[in-house]
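input
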Amino acid sequence: MFDNLTGRLETFVRNLRGQGKLSETNVKDTLREVRRILLEADVSLKAAKAFVRDVQEKSLGHEVLKSVTPGQQMVKIIHDELVSFLGGASEPIRFGKSPSPILVVGLNGAGKTTTSAKLAAHLRKRGRKPLLVAADTFRPAAIDQLETLGRQIDIPVFSGDRKNALKTVADSRDYARELSLDCLIIDSAGRMAVNDELMNQLQEMQDAIKPPETLLVVDGMTGQDAVRSANAFLERIELTGLVMTKLDGDSRGGAALSIRWVTGKPIKFIGVGEKTNDFEQFHPDRMAGRILGLGDVVSFVEKAQEAVDIESAQKMADKLAKQQFTFDDFREQLHQLKNMGPLESVLGMIPGMKSIKGLQVDENQFVVVESIIDSMTPAEREVPKIINGSRRRRIAQGCGRSVQDVNRLLNQFEQMQKMIKRFGKKGPKFPGGFPGMPGF
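output
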Protein backbone atom coordinates (compact mmCIF):
# COMPACT_ATOMS: atom_id res chain seq x y z
CA MET A 1 0.00 0.00 0.00
CA PHE A 2 1.40 3.41 -1.05
CA ASP A 3 4.80 1.77 -1.67
CA ASN A 4 6.28 4.60 -3.75
CA LEU A 5 4.87 7.38 -1.57
CA THR A 6 5.90 5.64 1.65
CA GLY A 7 9.40 4.91 0.33
CA ARG A 8 10.00 8.51 -0.71
CA LEU A 9 8.56 10.05 2.44
CA GLU A 10 10.31 7.55 4.70
CA THR A 11 13.69 8.46 3.20
CA PHE A 12 12.80 12.13 3.45
CA VAL A 13 11.75 11.79 7.12
CA ARG A 14 14.93 9.87 7.96
CA ASN A 15 17.07 12.68 6.52
CA LEU A 16 14.95 15.36 8.15
CA ARG A 17 15.39 13.89 11.63
CA GLY A 18 19.10 14.56 11.41
CA GLN A 19 18.61 18.28 10.91
CA GLY A 20 20.08 20.11 13.88
CA LYS A 21 18.72 23.49 12.89
CA LEU A 22 15.70 24.59 10.89
CA SER A 23 15.51 28.06 9.37
CA GLU A 24 12.84 29.68 7.24
CA THR A 25 14.94 28.89 4.18
CA ASN A 26 15.41 25.17 4.76
CA VAL A 27 11.81 24.81 5.94
CA LYS A 28 10.70 26.11 2.55
CA ASP A 29 13.19 23.81 0.81
CA THR A 30 11.91 20.91 2.86
CA LEU A 31 8.29 21.61 2.02
CA ARG A 32 9.09 22.09 -1.66
CA GLU A 33 10.37 18.52 -1.63
CA VAL A 34 7.25 17.34 0.23
CA ARG A 35 5.01 18.96 -2.39
CA ARG A 36 6.97 17.33 -5.20
CA ILE A 37 6.61 13.90 -3.53
CA LEU A 38 2.86 14.42 -3.10
CA LEU A 39 2.35 15.49 -6.70
CA GLU A 40 4.31 12.49 -7.98
CA ALA A 41 2.00 10.33 -5.85
CA ASP A 42 -0.97 11.76 -7.81
CA VAL A 43 -2.24 13.99 -5.02
CA SER A 44 -4.28 16.81 -6.56
CA LEU A 45 -2.43 20.10 -7.01
CA LYS A 46 -4.86 22.07 -4.82
CA ALA A 47 -4.65 19.50 -2.04
CA ALA A 48 -0.83 19.36 -2.16
CA LYS A 49 -0.58 23.16 -2.02
CA ALA A 50 -3.00 23.32 0.92
CA PHE A 51 -1.06 20.66 2.82
CA VAL A 52 2.29 22.40 2.32
CA ARG A 53 0.79 25.80 3.23
CA ASP A 54 -0.63 24.49 6.50
CA VAL A 55 2.60 22.73 7.47
CA GLN A 56 4.63 25.86 6.71
CA GLU A 57 2.37 28.06 8.84
CA LYS A 58 2.64 25.69 11.80
CA SER A 59 6.38 25.05 11.52
CA LEU A 60 7.63 28.63 11.18
CA GLY A 61 5.81 29.85 14.28
CA HIS A 62 6.58 26.76 16.34
CA GLU A 63 8.84 26.73 19.37
CA VAL A 64 11.36 23.91 19.37
CA LEU A 65 11.10 21.61 22.38
CA LYS A 66 14.36 20.98 24.24
CA SER A 67 13.80 17.23 24.27
CA VAL A 68 13.73 16.89 20.46
CA THR A 69 15.75 18.17 17.55
CA PRO A 70 14.20 20.71 15.16
CA GLY A 71 14.16 18.01 12.48
CA GLN A 72 12.23 15.63 14.71
CA GLN A 73 9.73 18.33 15.54
CA MET A 74 9.26 19.02 11.83
CA VAL A 75 8.48 15.34 11.31
CA LYS A 76 5.84 15.55 14.04
CA ILE A 77 4.26 18.61 12.43
CA ILE A 78 4.10 16.83 9.07
CA HIS A 79 2.64 13.73 10.74
CA ASP A 80 -0.02 15.73 12.62
CA GLU A 81 -0.98 17.65 9.49
CA LEU A 82 -1.20 14.40 7.52
CA VAL A 83 -3.57 13.02 10.19
CA SER A 84 -5.71 16.16 9.86
CA PHE A 85 -5.52 15.95 6.06
CA LEU A 86 -6.87 12.37 6.20
CA GLY A 87 -9.78 13.31 8.44
CA GLY A 88 -8.46 13.67 11.97
CA ALA A 89 -10.28 10.79 13.63
CA SER A 90 -11.90 7.59 12.44
CA GLU A 91 -15.67 7.66 12.05
CA PRO A 92 -17.53 4.45 12.88
CA ILE A 93 -20.61 3.18 11.07
CA ARG A 94 -23.85 4.78 12.25
CA PHE A 95 -26.88 2.59 12.91
CA GLY A 96 -30.56 3.44 13.11
CA LYS A 97 -33.65 1.46 14.01
CA SER A 98 -33.22 -2.29 13.44
CA PRO A 99 -32.84 -3.55 10.81
CA SER A 100 -30.63 -0.55 10.03
CA PRO A 101 -29.92 -0.08 6.28
CA ILE A 102 -26.47 0.64 4.89
CA LEU A 103 -26.66 1.66 1.23
CA VAL A 104 -23.52 0.78 -0.77
CA VAL A 105 -23.16 2.72 -4.03
CA GLY A 106 -20.51 3.08 -6.73
CA LEU A 107 -19.55 2.51 -10.34
CA ASN A 108 -19.16 -0.93 -11.87
CA GLY A 109 -15.62 -2.24 -11.47
CA ALA A 110 -14.87 -0.38 -8.24
CA GLY A 111 -15.53 -3.50 -6.14
CA LYS A 112 -18.96 -2.56 -4.81
CA THR A 113 -20.40 -6.09 -4.55
CA THR A 114 -17.24 -7.54 -3.00
CA THR A 115 -17.08 -4.61 -0.59
CA SER A 116 -20.68 -5.30 0.51
CA ALA A 117 -19.68 -8.86 1.46
CA LYS A 118 -16.50 -7.68 3.19
CA LEU A 119 -18.46 -5.11 5.17
CA ALA A 120 -20.95 -7.80 6.25
CA ALA A 121 -18.13 -10.04 7.48
CA HIS A 122 -16.50 -7.08 9.26
CA LEU A 123 -19.71 -6.13 11.08
CA ARG A 124 -20.43 -9.73 12.08
CA LYS A 125 -17.04 -9.91 13.82
CA ARG A 126 -18.18 -6.92 15.85
CA GLY A 127 -21.40 -8.51 17.03
CA ARG A 128 -23.81 -7.40 14.29
CA LYS A 129 -26.20 -9.72 12.42
CA PRO A 130 -26.14 -8.50 8.81
CA LEU A 131 -28.29 -9.39 5.80
CA LEU A 132 -26.87 -8.83 2.33
CA VAL A 133 -29.46 -7.38 -0.05
CA ALA A 134 -28.93 -7.90 -3.80
CA ALA A 135 -30.44 -4.74 -5.28
CA ASP A 136 -28.28 -4.42 -8.39
CA THR A 137 -31.02 -5.39 -10.86
CA PHE A 138 -29.16 -3.65 -13.71
CA ARG A 139 -26.39 -6.29 -13.65
CA PRO A 140 -27.87 -9.77 -12.95
CA ALA A 141 -24.37 -11.22 -12.53
CA ALA A 142 -23.97 -8.99 -9.45
CA ILE A 143 -26.86 -10.83 -7.77
CA ASP A 144 -25.25 -14.21 -8.49
CA GLN A 145 -21.89 -12.88 -7.30
CA LEU A 146 -23.36 -11.63 -4.02
CA GLU A 147 -25.14 -14.95 -3.41
CA THR A 148 -21.85 -16.80 -4.00
CA LEU A 149 -19.99 -14.50 -1.62
CA GLY A 150 -22.75 -14.88 0.96
CA ARG A 151 -22.40 -18.67 0.90
CA GLN A 152 -18.63 -18.39 1.26
CA ILE A 153 -18.84 -16.25 4.41
CA ASP A 154 -22.06 -17.87 5.69
CA ILE A 155 -24.11 -14.68 5.68
CA PRO A 156 -27.71 -14.73 4.33
CA VAL A 157 -28.46 -12.97 1.03
CA PHE A 158 -31.88 -11.63 0.00
CA SER A 159 -32.44 -11.25 -3.75
CA GLY A 160 -36.25 -10.92 -3.79
CA ASP A 161 -37.64 -9.36 -6.96
CA ARG A 162 -34.75 -9.45 -9.42
CA LYS A 163 -36.39 -6.80 -11.62
CA ASN A 164 -37.50 -4.24 -9.05
CA ALA A 165 -34.76 -2.94 -6.76
CA LEU A 166 -37.06 -0.80 -4.60
CA LYS A 167 -39.40 -3.73 -3.92
CA THR A 168 -36.41 -5.96 -3.11
CA VAL A 169 -35.15 -3.50 -0.52
CA ALA A 170 -38.61 -3.03 1.00
CA ASP A 171 -39.19 -6.79 1.27
CA SER A 172 -35.72 -7.34 2.72
CA ARG A 173 -36.73 -5.55 5.93
CA ASP A 174 -39.49 -8.07 6.66
CA TYR A 175 -37.11 -10.92 5.80
CA ALA A 176 -34.47 -9.53 8.18
CA ARG A 177 -37.00 -9.27 11.00
CA GLU A 178 -38.06 -12.90 10.46
CA LEU A 179 -34.43 -13.98 10.89
CA SER A 180 -33.76 -11.54 13.78
CA LEU A 181 -31.07 -9.73 11.76
CA ASP A 182 -30.23 -6.17 12.74
CA CYS A 183 -28.70 -4.51 9.67
CA LEU A 184 -29.15 -4.52 5.89
CA ILE A 185 -26.18 -4.09 3.58
CA ILE A 186 -27.70 -3.06 0.25
CA ASP A 187 -25.63 -3.67 -2.88
CA SER A 188 -27.22 -1.07 -5.17
CA ALA A 189 -27.06 -0.76 -8.96
CA GLY A 190 -23.95 0.55 -10.66
CA ARG A 191 -22.99 1.81 -14.12
CA MET A 192 -19.79 2.22 -16.05
CA ALA A 193 -20.16 6.00 -15.62
CA VAL A 194 -22.32 8.41 -13.64
CA ASN A 195 -25.61 9.09 -15.45
CA ASP A 196 -29.14 10.34 -14.73
CA GLU A 197 -30.69 6.86 -14.73
CA LEU A 198 -28.34 5.65 -11.99
CA MET A 199 -28.68 8.79 -9.88
CA ASN A 200 -32.47 8.83 -10.12
CA GLN A 201 -32.64 5.23 -8.92
CA LEU A 202 -30.28 5.92 -6.01
CA GLN A 203 -32.23 9.04 -5.04
CA GLU A 204 -35.48 7.06 -5.02
CA MET A 205 -33.87 4.38 -2.87
CA GLN A 206 -32.48 6.91 -0.39
CA ASP A 207 -35.87 8.62 -0.12
CA ALA A 208 -37.61 5.26 0.44
CA ILE A 209 -35.32 3.75 3.12
CA LYS A 210 -33.59 6.85 4.59
CA PRO A 211 -30.36 4.99 5.42
CA PRO A 212 -28.18 6.31 8.28
CA GLU A 213 -25.20 5.32 6.11
CA THR A 214 -24.66 5.68 2.36
CA LEU A 215 -21.14 4.53 1.49
CA LEU A 216 -19.53 5.27 -1.87
CA VAL A 217 -17.05 2.64 -3.07
CA VAL A 218 -14.19 4.10 -5.15
CA ASP A 219 -11.31 2.35 -6.88
CA GLY A 220 -8.02 3.53 -5.35
CA MET A 221 -6.09 2.54 -8.46
CA THR A 222 -7.89 5.09 -10.66
CA GLY A 223 -6.12 8.02 -8.97
CA GLN A 224 -7.81 11.38 -9.42
CA ASP A 225 -10.62 9.74 -11.42
CA ALA A 226 -11.79 8.34 -8.07
CA VAL A 227 -11.95 11.88 -6.70
CA ARG A 228 -13.89 13.11 -9.74
CA SER A 229 -16.42 10.26 -9.56
CA ALA A 230 -16.89 10.92 -5.82
CA ASN A 231 -17.70 14.56 -6.56
CA ALA A 232 -20.15 13.49 -9.28
CA PHE A 233 -22.03 11.29 -6.79
CA LEU A 234 -22.02 14.06 -4.18
CA GLU A 235 -23.77 16.42 -6.57
CA ARG A 236 -26.82 14.15 -6.71
CA ILE A 237 -27.05 12.04 -3.55
CA GLU A 238 -26.20 12.35 0.13
CA LEU A 239 -23.06 10.42 1.07
CA THR A 240 -21.96 9.73 4.63
CA GLY A 241 -18.61 8.08 3.90
CA LEU A 242 -16.22 6.50 1.44
CA VAL A 243 -14.71 3.05 0.99
CA MET A 244 -11.47 2.87 -0.97
CA THR A 245 -10.70 -0.45 -2.66
CA LYS A 246 -7.64 -2.02 -4.29
CA LEU A 247 -5.17 -0.08 -2.15
CA ASP A 248 -2.97 -3.19 -2.13
CA GLY A 249 -2.30 -2.54 -5.82
CA ASP A 250 -2.01 1.25 -5.69
CA SER A 251 1.68 2.20 -5.83
CA ARG A 252 1.04 5.96 -5.56
CA GLY A 253 -1.90 6.48 -3.20
CA GLY A 254 -2.71 10.03 -4.23
CA ALA A 255 -6.46 9.39 -4.38
CA ALA A 256 -6.59 8.34 -0.72
CA LEU A 257 -4.70 11.48 0.28
CA SER A 258 -6.84 13.79 -1.86
CA ILE A 259 -10.35 12.43 -1.60
CA ARG A 260 -11.02 13.33 2.04
CA TRP A 261 -9.78 16.88 1.54
CA VAL A 262 -11.60 17.40 -1.78
CA THR A 263 -14.97 15.85 -0.88
CA GLY A 264 -15.11 16.59 2.84
CA LYS A 265 -16.42 13.05 3.40
CA PRO A 266 -14.60 10.61 5.69
CA ILE A 267 -12.94 7.45 4.44
CA LYS A 268 -14.56 4.80 6.64
CA PHE A 269 -13.02 1.61 5.28
CA ILE A 270 -10.25 0.46 2.95
CA GLY A 271 -9.87 -2.74 0.96
CA VAL A 272 -6.32 -4.08 0.97
CA GLY A 273 -6.69 -7.42 -0.83
CA GLU A 274 -9.03 -9.86 -2.52
CA LYS A 275 -9.93 -12.00 0.49
CA THR A 276 -12.98 -11.26 2.62
CA ASN A 277 -10.86 -10.35 5.65
CA ASP A 278 -8.65 -7.95 3.65
CA PHE A 279 -10.79 -5.08 4.86
CA GLU A 280 -9.96 -2.49 7.50
CA GLN A 281 -11.62 0.37 9.29
CA PHE A 282 -9.82 3.55 8.29
CA HIS A 283 -7.89 5.32 11.05
CA PRO A 284 -6.23 8.58 9.88
CA ASP A 285 -3.60 8.57 12.62
CA ARG A 286 -2.58 4.98 11.91
CA MET A 287 -2.51 5.55 8.15
CA ALA A 288 -0.34 8.64 8.57
CA GLY A 289 2.15 6.51 10.51
CA ARG A 290 2.22 3.90 7.74
CA ILE A 291 2.66 6.49 4.99
CA LEU A 292 5.61 8.08 6.82
CA GLY A 293 7.17 4.68 7.49
CA LEU A 294 6.53 4.95 11.23
CA GLY A 295 4.48 1.75 11.35
CA ASP A 296 1.07 0.96 12.80
CA VAL A 297 1.53 -1.29 15.79
CA VAL A 298 -2.08 -0.97 17.00
CA SER A 299 -3.54 -2.35 13.76
CA PHE A 300 -0.84 -5.04 13.74
CA VAL A 301 -1.88 -6.23 17.20
CA GLU A 302 -5.58 -6.11 16.27
CA LYS A 303 -4.96 -8.26 13.20
CA ALA A 304 -2.93 -10.72 15.29
CA GLN A 305 -5.72 -10.98 17.85
CA GLU A 306 -8.26 -11.74 15.11
CA ALA A 307 -6.06 -14.27 13.33
CA VAL A 308 -4.61 -16.17 16.28
CA ASP A 309 -6.70 -18.59 18.30
CA ILE A 310 -5.77 -18.08 21.96
CA GLU A 311 -6.20 -21.73 22.94
CA SER A 312 -4.08 -23.04 20.07
CA ALA A 313 -1.50 -20.30 20.75
CA GLN A 314 -1.18 -21.53 24.35
CA LYS A 315 -0.71 -25.11 23.16
CA MET A 316 1.93 -23.88 20.72
CA ALA A 317 3.72 -22.00 23.50
CA ASP A 318 3.79 -25.21 25.57
CA LYS A 319 5.25 -27.12 22.62
CA LEU A 320 7.89 -24.48 22.06
CA ALA A 321 8.84 -24.60 25.73
CA LYS A 322 9.27 -28.38 25.44
CA GLN A 323 11.05 -28.03 22.08
CA GLN A 324 8.46 -30.21 20.32
CA PHE A 325 7.81 -28.00 17.29
CA THR A 326 6.85 -30.09 14.22
CA PHE A 327 6.03 -29.45 10.56
CA ASP A 328 2.32 -29.74 11.42
CA ASP A 329 2.80 -26.89 13.89
CA PHE A 330 4.73 -24.95 11.28
CA ARG A 331 1.91 -25.30 8.75
CA GLU A 332 -0.63 -24.13 11.34
CA GLN A 333 1.49 -21.05 12.02
CA LEU A 334 1.61 -20.26 8.30
CA HIS A 335 -2.19 -20.46 8.12
CA GLN A 336 -2.54 -18.01 11.01
CA LEU A 337 -0.02 -15.65 9.45
CA LYS A 338 -1.90 -15.69 6.14
CA ASN A 339 -5.17 -15.00 7.97
CA MET A 340 -3.78 -11.62 9.01
CA GLY A 341 -4.06 -10.43 5.41
CA PRO A 342 -1.54 -9.60 2.66
CA LEU A 343 1.91 -10.09 4.16
CA GLU A 344 3.32 -6.95 2.60
CA SER A 345 0.54 -4.91 4.21
CA VAL A 346 1.19 -6.59 7.57
CA LEU A 347 4.92 -5.89 7.39
CA GLY A 348 4.15 -2.25 6.61
CA MET A 349 2.57 -1.97 10.06
CA ILE A 350 5.85 -2.84 11.77
CA PRO A 351 8.06 0.23 12.26
CA GLY A 352 11.21 0.05 10.13
CA MET A 353 10.32 -3.14 8.25
CA LYS A 354 9.72 -1.38 4.94
CA SER A 355 13.20 0.11 5.02
CA ILE A 356 15.04 -3.22 5.38
CA LYS A 357 17.07 -3.70 2.24
CA GLY A 358 16.74 -7.03 0.50
CA LEU A 359 13.49 -7.94 2.27
CA GLN A 360 11.35 -9.72 -0.30
CA VAL A 361 7.75 -10.70 0.21
CA ASP A 362 6.40 -13.45 -2.02
CA GLU A 363 3.27 -15.00 -0.57
CA ASN A 364 3.19 -17.54 -3.40
CA GLN A 365 6.13 -19.24 -1.70
CA PHE A 366 3.85 -20.11 1.21
CA VAL A 367 1.93 -22.29 -1.24
CA VAL A 368 5.21 -24.01 -2.17
CA VAL A 369 6.05 -24.62 1.48
CA GLU A 370 2.60 -26.02 2.26
CA SER A 371 2.67 -28.32 -0.78
CA ILE A 372 6.01 -29.77 0.37
CA ILE A 373 4.71 -30.32 3.91
CA ASP A 374 1.52 -31.94 2.55
CA SER A 375 3.64 -34.41 0.58
CA MET A 376 5.26 -35.68 3.78
CA THR A 377 3.90 -38.61 5.76
CA PRO A 378 2.63 -37.96 9.32
CA ALA A 379 5.78 -39.57 10.68
CA GLU A 380 8.00 -37.31 8.54
CA ARG A 381 6.16 -34.19 9.67
CA GLU A 382 6.55 -35.30 13.28
CA VAL A 383 10.23 -36.32 13.08
CA PRO A 384 11.93 -34.61 10.08
CA LYS A 385 15.26 -36.31 10.89
CA ILE A 386 14.02 -39.54 9.27
CA ILE A 387 13.77 -37.83 5.86
CA ASN A 388 16.68 -39.35 3.95
CA GLY A 389 17.61 -39.01 0.27
CA SER A 390 14.96 -41.37 -1.12
CA ARG A 391 12.24 -39.77 1.01
CA ARG A 392 13.29 -36.33 -0.24
CA ARG A 393 12.95 -37.47 -3.84
CA ARG A 394 9.51 -38.94 -3.12
CA ILE A 395 8.36 -35.73 -1.41
CA ALA A 396 9.62 -33.64 -4.33
CA GLN A 397 7.79 -35.81 -6.87
CA GLY A 398 4.60 -35.74 -4.78
CA CYS A 399 4.38 -31.93 -4.74
CA GLY A 400 5.88 -31.20 -8.15
CA ARG A 401 8.88 -29.35 -6.75
CA SER A 402 12.61 -29.96 -6.99
CA VAL A 403 14.69 -31.86 -4.45
CA GLN A 404 16.57 -28.58 -3.90
CA ASP A 405 13.31 -26.93 -2.77
CA VAL A 406 12.72 -29.75 -0.29
CA ASN A 407 16.31 -29.50 0.98
CA ARG A 408 15.97 -25.75 1.43
CA LEU A 409 12.84 -26.10 3.52
CA LEU A 410 14.36 -28.84 5.67
CA ASN A 411 17.47 -26.73 6.27
CA GLN A 412 15.37 -23.72 7.23
CA PHE A 413 13.26 -25.83 9.57
CA GLU A 414 16.40 -27.18 11.22
CA GLN A 415 17.67 -23.61 11.72
CA MET A 416 14.34 -22.71 13.24
CA GLN A 417 14.48 -25.58 15.70
CA LYS A 418 17.98 -24.50 16.75
CA MET A 419 16.67 -20.96 17.28
CA ILE A 420 13.80 -22.31 19.39
CA LYS A 421 16.29 -24.21 21.56
CA ARG A 422 18.18 -20.97 22.17
CA PHE A 423 14.93 -19.30 23.22
CA GLY A 424 14.29 -22.12 25.67
CA LYS A 425 11.27 -21.43 27.81
CA LYS A 426 11.03 -17.91 26.41
CA GLY A 427 9.89 -19.25 23.03
CA PRO A 428 8.51 -16.87 20.41
CA LYS A 429 5.05 -15.65 21.31
CA PHE A 430 3.94 -14.57 17.87
CA PRO A 431 3.42 -16.81 14.86
CA GLY A 432 5.44 -15.87 11.84
CA GLY A 433 8.94 -15.11 13.11
CA PHE A 434 10.42 -17.66 10.75
CA PRO A 435 13.92 -17.03 9.39
CA GLY A 436 14.17 -16.92 5.62
CA MET A 437 10.55 -17.78 4.88
CA PRO A 438 9.41 -14.63 3.04
CA GLY A 439 12.11 -15.10 0.41
CA PHE A 440 12.01 -18.91 0.25
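quick obs: The longest strand covers residues 100-106.
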